[in-house]
Amino acid sequence: MKRVRTVEGSCWSCKGRRVKCDLAKPSCGHCQTLGAECVYGSVRVRWSTRPNAFQARIANAPGSSASSSSSSSCELAVYQKRALEYFMNRLWPLFTSERVACPFPVDAATRDRTMLQAVCVISDAHRCRLDRRNSESGVQLRRIHVLASINQAISRVGMARGPQQIQLLYAVLLLYFLDGYIDCKTENAATLSHQMGIRAIINSSGGYQNVLASSNDALCLLISEFVAADLSSALFRNTEPFFPPETWPLLSTYRVWWASDKREALKLGMLFQKIAAMIFYGKGIQSAGETASPKQVEEFEADFSPIYTSVSSSGQAGPPEGHDAGAPCTEESLLRGEFLRAYQHCASIYLYRVICRYPAQHSIVQQHVYGAISKIVAMDDESKLLDCVLLPLCVAGAHLRNASLQRTLFHKLDVIHRNLKFESVGCIKEWITGLWSLEALPQGWTELFQDLNPQAVVI
């Protein structure tokens, strides 16, 4: 094999691999792809967890605190350290739409075997999808070990409240996203089983209110993603969500996957609340054999109508009181506006298709289909918000018959798949390709989504 001449000033990771470094900082392209630590500098600092002779004598001395409680970092195997590094640098940032993810409690993971195993197995599974370095059989074996550790933890401490239960919730949530995002195509995927386990842990902890109040930002973010997946599944299957509508305003006061800013979090949180309320309303009139109330439909229309700021809505021609007239409108704020409107169009499609029972090709339905797609297509391929519009993409894409727009939308799916490396996106691609190949769309709402892998998590 021809050796590559390393670029002067390359990071140590690229030097070790003998690949050309693009010198990007704080992390070069190779390190970002591999989830490796990117370190520049003339001297490479190495650390070892193996104690020297003096440290060993101190650690083993009678009465030494080190002898009674050994450092958790010293107990980590090499593959565990690599898995933690990969999780923090490559995988964990994918769980949020923000450019910078909230801190993950690495210390808690290193102290709890079950939580650590869950972090390692989801990291190994994702890295296997990325570069095929890890063995599929090895990933599945470690997955079995995590399940065994969870069973042991439940039998040891039961479902009593406490720190161990929080770490257990972390582990089961990570397994849920492992099977729902990464391994949903494998025969061992058990997303629905993990879903029941998470609900049981939350209920035994006094409900989601108590869990959120006692959780750090990382756990709140994972819970928000779990609740959003529950809503998406209910929308696809036309079933009642497990979490009631009032969950969303409370959830939005904590760290959520769609925004770190409280005002932005509440905007989409309130929209999710209205969507959940609409699903419950629809199931109610269906079971009663009734039709939708025109007044209720008008209220939902007002809730889901895409809103743009205007002079008339503010009631004044100048900037509002307290507004910084010199503050420019950022690209991020514009993108978040389009992000919100994509979800508003998605909600409107469900309103007219399920509540009002309009056919898929109805002009009112199609105007929201094209509205949602226009927002998604306009998103920059580099924006993390694009990776978080799979729900409106699925709902609008399922009603799309224009071949040119289908190709454009599929390109966006390819971009998201490349960004995330989640097999759930692959499941969406397979499902929507089969749907578009049909001569005519199924008339029923649930029939549109019946071939979408039920193990796949979509938000």
Automatic annotation (TrEMBL):
Signal peptide: none annotated. It is found in: Nucleus. Gene3D superfamilies: Zn(2)-C6 fungal-type DNA-binding domain. It holds the Pfam family Zn_clus. The keyword Metal-binding does not apply. Transmembrane segments: none annotated. Residues 10-40 form the Zn(2)-C6 fungal-type domain. GO terms for cellular component: nucleus. InterPro entries: Fun_TF, Zn2-C6_fun-type_DNA-bd_sf, Zn2Cys6_DnaBD. GO terms for molecular function: DNA-binding transcription factor activity, RNA polymerase II-specific; zinc ion binding. Keywords: Nucleus. PROSITE patterns: ZN2_CY6_FUNGAL_1, ZN2_CY6_FUNGAL_2. PANTHER family: TRANSCRIPTIONAL ACTIVATOR PROTEIN UGA3, ZN(II)2CYS6 TRANSCRIPTION FACTOR (EUROFUNG). This is Zn(2)-C6 fungal-type domain-containing protein. It comes from Sarocladium strictum (Black bundle disease fungus). The lineage of its organism: Eukaryota, Fungi, Dikarya, Ascomycota, Pezizomycotina.
